[in-house]
């Protein structure tokens, strides 16, 4: 036991108190407060907004381009039977238009973020949350638009928009086996509608809905400590899943108005969920660790980063349960304890002569 003591002690290095204090000061100065002026704000975040504008322009530009793939599709068998009736649904208006879907996916999470400020009262948190929401929505939009342009697919109402100039008597003049495969050259409909009908996968509605509403659920969990160190009231769990239910309803409505197949919606939902998860973790110190998932990460002084062992937080959560209040804002004992917890344990071992 005595032989191992020097190696154990050697592994422990006393933290640099001056460096920690300097970091605390830098971190406090770095967080956005009421005293931050417009010049400092723009100096800090101008590149983020520039990238948002660039990505938005790319998304809008790609959205009006002709789809890249030359899709082949059968229309009739030789006996006159329609090969794929799942592409023959009538063309009609969306239950929820694309513009309204994007607006809802932004406005409703914003409302929750601003309502939470009644308790949190932090411009830093509001700015971090809303920027993260914008990152999630704009990244998801560009992601799905590029996939639609390069991959795409036939929408359920494709034949109604295409209006193919082909009859069973003409079968055999196309490509593939028995010449039953044709491309868009047989279409006589409006070119813009045909382009749209060839861009089915993934669902943009589903991507936007999950990118916005799942991000909202993550935010509510971080602020209300729904999955934390105590058992909250049931309404908090319902509130956590309500935005996800909204995303599912918006996405699933596309099967009713025949704008997407179920697999288009599934892929869009996966993309939106993936990007919402990344956007929230990009902005906040954690997603599921209840001790830190309400804390905005620093942008100024990022070379130092956020010290997960700091004993005081500059942004409080929205919950007063489980020890979360203004006087006790550090919670210990969860899995994956942070660095300072390990320092405390190591210090106690050394002090005890282990």
UniProtKB/TrEMBL annotation:
Pfam families in alphabetical order: PAP2
Residues covered by the Phosphatidic acid phosphatase type 2/haloperoxidase domain: 128-280
Keyword Transmembrane helix assigned: yes
Cellular location(s): Membrane
Membrane-protein topology: Multi-pass membrane protein
GO molecular function: phosphatidate phosphatase activity
Name listed for the protein in its UniProt record: Phosphatidic acid phosphatase type 2/haloperoxidase domain-containing protein
Organism: Didymodactylos carnosus
